[in-house]
Hints:
- By secondary structure, the protein is mainly α.
- It is built from nine helices and six strands, in the order ββαβααβαααααβαβ.
- It has helices at 26-34, 44-47, 50-57, 69-75, 85-93, 117-145, 149-156, 160-175, 182-185; strands at 9-11, 17-19, 38-40, 66-68, 178-180, 195-197.
Amino acid sequence: xxxxxxxxxxxxxxxxxxxxxxxxxxxxxxxxxxxxxxxxxxxxxxxxxxxxxxxxxxxxxxxxxxxxxxxxxxxxxxxxxxxxxxxxxxxxxxxxxxxxxxxxxxxxxxxxxxxxxxxxxxxxxxxxxxxxxxxxxxxxxxxxxxxxxxxxxxxxxxxxxxxxxxxxxxxxxxxxxxxxxxxxxxxxxxxxxxxxxxx
Length: 199
């Protein structure tokens, strides 16, 4: 699932923005806090955006942490040093995204319906690519670990749905908050077993 929330920010100059601070509805904050860990690439800073919500509303908000797609890709056997959304979607799905326009000329803060249609398409595509890439990677790892679903279910005494749910939950909870060590990332042979937990 992808989500985008527009804050109604307007640009006052090249580097300055104004926001008509009416606060976040409590329902929106409750919804964001109820979401499972956020999945994406380079999203640690996005999760730390909780401080912005506090500055605007005065209410503490806590996401359920995050999962870096690059860590999941490495777990699946990814050997390339680059693990950004562009290269992940290109190699995993064969799709290309125009990251040159990803800053949207500073327009991401304006309401979604006021965005140029091309940027609306990009925003939907960006969130969708993250979701599809996660689905492909977790499925590939599942098939790598348990290529025969009948055997896995027979030994576990459960249905395929129950086994897949258990497996995906286990992997998700294991990868929460992990990042690849920069030192290990410089050596392909050192990647596996070189995850660091950051909070």
